[in-house]
Amino acid sequence: SQQGEEDPQALSIQEGENATMNCSYKTSINNLQWYRQNSGRGLVHLILIRSNEREKHSGRLRVTLDTSKKSSSLLITASRAADTASYFCAIESSGTYKYIFGTGTRLKVLA
Amino acid sequence: DTEVTQTPKHLVMGMTNKKSLKCEQHMGHRAMYWYKQKAKKPPELMFVYSYEKLSINESVPSRFSPECPNSSLLNLHLHALQPEDSALYLCASSQVVNRQASYNEQFFGPGTRLTVL
């Protein structure tokens, strides 16, 4: 399966702590994106990282990509209760024009 | 306007009904997508339209029939669905579907929650 695998499946932390979630995949990719989804609603794009990039930042988010290990990580610093959501990675395999979503990490931030 | 809208928000239908889901965007995006998402699962790609033409069909059963009347609209026609088709149906759009493009962020609508009885 081309689907990305994310770990952990669920994560519960205190407000103010950092949250790290990981995505692993099996194919070569054009780029990888991270999305957030609140309570079964639409997904919100967080950040895109291209295959020739190793790290990107956006506000409290930091994404890394290691194409040799076929893995990516999303770090949310100084978490807030509002960060409680499911987080998905989505990979665009090389040679395709579509995204395959990972299994997701359910993050719960306790106030 | 950076919004993708979907109607209806909720839909309950019987297995013999015919219904349609609608999606609209006014961001000038030329790629539009349908995804199906079951509870606590990731979205699964169903169809991709590029420049109003169907470019990807992920072996979706024919009881789902997509239509792209123009660059802003995307429909999903439903007929003779099964209870296992109950799910959240998400529409998304992006700027291009092109391997040379450096930016393929997808904008998602809020989804239509479909229940098939």
Q: Could you explain the architecture of this structure?
A:
The complex is a heterodimer of chains A (111) and B (117). Chain A has 111 residues and is mostly beta strands. Chain A is built from no helices and eleven strands. In chain A, strands 2, 4, 5, 9, 10 and 11 form a six-stranded mixed beta sheet that branches. Chain A has a five-stranded antiparallel beta sheet with strand order 1-3-8-7-6, with no helix packed on it. The model of chain A has no long low-confidence stretch (mean pLDDT 92). By secondary structure, chain B is mainly β. Chain B has no helices and eleven strands. In chain B, strands 2, 4, 5, 6, 9, 10 and 11 form a seven-stranded mixed beta sheet that branches. A four-stranded antiparallel beta sheet of chain B has the order 1-3-8-7, with no helix packed on it. The model of chain B has no long low-confidence stretch (mean pLDDT 91). The A-B interface holds A 3, 30-31, 33, 35, 40-45, 48, 50, 88, 90, 92, 94-95, 97-104, 106 and B 4, 31, 33, 37, 39-45, 48, 50, 55-56, 58, 88, 90, 92, 97-99, 102-111, 113.
Instruction: Name the helicity range of chain A.
Output: under 10%
Please report the distance between the alpha carbons of the first and last residues of chain B: 36 Å
What kind of sheet is the major sheet of chain B? 7 strands, mixed
Quick one: how many beta strands of chain A? 11
Computed CA radius of gyration of chain A, to the nearest angstrom: 13 Å
General form of chain A: globular
Compute the average pLDDT of chain A.
92
Given the C-alpha coordinates, what overall shape of chain B results?
globular
Distinct helical segment count of chain A: 0
- Measure the end-to-end span of chain A: 37 Å
